[in-house]
Amino acid sequence: MRSLLKGTVGALTIALATWTAGNAAAQCVELDAAAVDVPFTTEMAADANAVYLSVVGGDTPTPNDCGLLASNDPALWMGWGGPLDVDNASIGEGPGTRNFVTIGGTRYARGIGTHSDATFGFDLSGGNYERFMAYVGMDDEKDAGAAGAGDSCGFGGTSEFTVSVDGSVVFESGLVTGMSGADNVAPVLVDVDVTGASDLEIAITGGDDGIGCDHAAIGDPKLLSSSTAVDPAGKTTTTWSTLKQR
Question: Labelling 88: which of 2, 50, 135, 146 has CA 20 to 30 A away?
């Protein structure tokens, strides 16, 4: 559940959204309208019982309480198009041109949009978290034709995602592409154990073709505690983020 207080920054309308998440009110600076219409077929709603990862920086707006804010240098949060000044939005074509985070035809209520190369570090100390879950991939805003926004990049970009816990690599996506033929590519599920961990790092690098058009995205990036962590094979409890058909 959320309430909105609207305002205008540049050419886009944004909204200060209050989410009920992790038993605390999360204040997010949200897009109210996207710069372009990125098609999608499903939506993933926010999980009211999770603590979400958040990155937002720059002077306007200032960092807020949308979730667990990245603790490393904001200059490392994106390889192009910064600062990351809006929560739950794609990188777009830079400030004032953000879109809703969409990967493989799924739009995410909560997510991080960036551009390769990027690194996010999160301090998990004292959080009593047990699992980190997310979906990673290339944002559909760079996909061609009916699969995306019809951007001139065409191929949708490429990136690799690596997740480390306390300095040890626990997940590697391999090369992720934005498109396969004329179709967009489904996101890759990340599900790692963070029990007792102090540090979580997500690193995103470009593919072997440089970083051009590499609009990377992390959908539904959340931390679950013992009361909310579930077996992803079941997906039956109310604590799992729900998919709803458009």
Answer: 146
> How far, in Å, CA of 110 to CA of 139, rounded?
14
Beta strands at 188-193 and 111-113: parallel, antiparallel or unpaired: unpaired
Domains in the chain: how many in total? 1
Please say whether the beta carbons of 43 and 28 come within 8 A. no
pLDDT given for residue 82 in this prediction: 87
Q: Is the pTM of this model over 0.85?
A: no
Name the average pLDDT for the chain. 81
What order do you get walking across the sheet with 199-206 strand by strand? 118-123, 199-206, 158-165, 168-177
The answer to whether 167 and 88 are in contact (CB under 8 A) is no
Q: Is residue 245 part of a domain?
A: no
Spatial distance between the Cα atoms of 183 and 135, rounded to a whole number of angstroms: 18
Q: Give the range of the structural domain holding residue 129, as residue numbers without chain letter.
A: 2-228
Higher pLDDT, 2 or 176: 176
Quick one: pLDDT band at residue 30, thresholds 50, 70, 90?
Answer: confident
For the domain that residue 177 is a member of, what is the CATH number? 2.60.120.1060
Q: Which of 29-43, 173-187, 208-222, 230-244 has the lowest mean pLDDT?
A: 230-244
Residue spans of beta strands (DSSP E) within the chain: 2-9, 12-21, 24-31, 42-44, 51-54, 68-69, 102-103, 106-108, 111-113, 118-123, 129-138, 158-165, 168-177, 179-180, 183-184, 188-193, 199-206, 216-225, 243-245
Name the pairing type of β-strands 183-184 and 2-9: unpaired
